[in-house]
Amino acid sequence: MPDRLLVLASTSPFRRQLLARLGLPFSVASPAVDEALLPGEDPAAGALRLSEAKARAVAASYPQALIIGSDQVACLDGRIFGKPGTHAEATRQLRTMRGQRVNFFTGLCLLDARSGKAHLRGVPTLVTFRELADEEIESYLHKEQPYNCAGSAKSEGLGIALIARIDGEDPNALIGLPLIALCDLLRLENVSVF
Question: Which of 11, 110, 133, 156 fits as disulfide partner to 185, beta carbons 3.0 to 4.6 Å?
């Protein structure tokens, strides 16, 4: 049990479910951060910047806490695939990504609100999409409606059927919270999950 409050700076139910796997008590706070990348910003650098921005956005409300921020950016050949928001944009994303290998880069931050010190870690996950027919994409989108997921690929649900292969160091990173890296960062702050 940590002697300090853990706070997840995220409104994502998927990140909340992942963090709950560690069995540590935690609170959840909405970071209210603009998730857009800056003009010309490298996707990996952007994911790291946004993960830290999310953690820092709630620090004033939890000045004694350890705050977890995470953000994910999907990238293919320099093109960014964010949260689609609409059916039409999700269709466009999946048509572009079919048969391709896409980097879903997850930025992770553990912020000590007391000291202001941030530990950052980036976790790439390379996802190879199946060659999907337009009808398969439409069926998936109608069933899953993944309009709030980077790259329209909700791998924790039916989206796993879109994927031919996943290469990465943490299977949880694709869902949005790399738990292996988080356990490493928690150890740096003397928090054990055991």
Answer: 110
**Active-site hit among 71, 112, 170, 184:** 71
Can you name the residues that pair with 165 across neighbouring β-strands? 128
CB count within 10 Å of CB 53 equals 18
pLDDT band for position 36 (cuts 50, 70, 90)? confident
Q: For residue range 134-168, what is the model confidence (pLDDT) as tens digits? A: 999 999 999 999 998 888 988 888 989 999 999 99
Told to judge if 170 belongs to the known catalytic residues of this protein, a careful annotator would answer no
- Show the domains of the chain with their CATH numbers: 6-188 (3.90.950.10)
d(CA 139, CA 158): 10
Task: Kindly state the greatest CA–CA separation across the chain.
Answer: 53
Render pLDDT for 94-125 as a digit per residue (tens, 0 to 9): 999 999 999 999 999 999 999 999 999 999 99
74 beta partners = 81, 104
- Helix axis angle for 87-97 and 134-144, nearest 10°, is 140
pTM: predicted TM-score of the whole model, two decimal places: 0.91
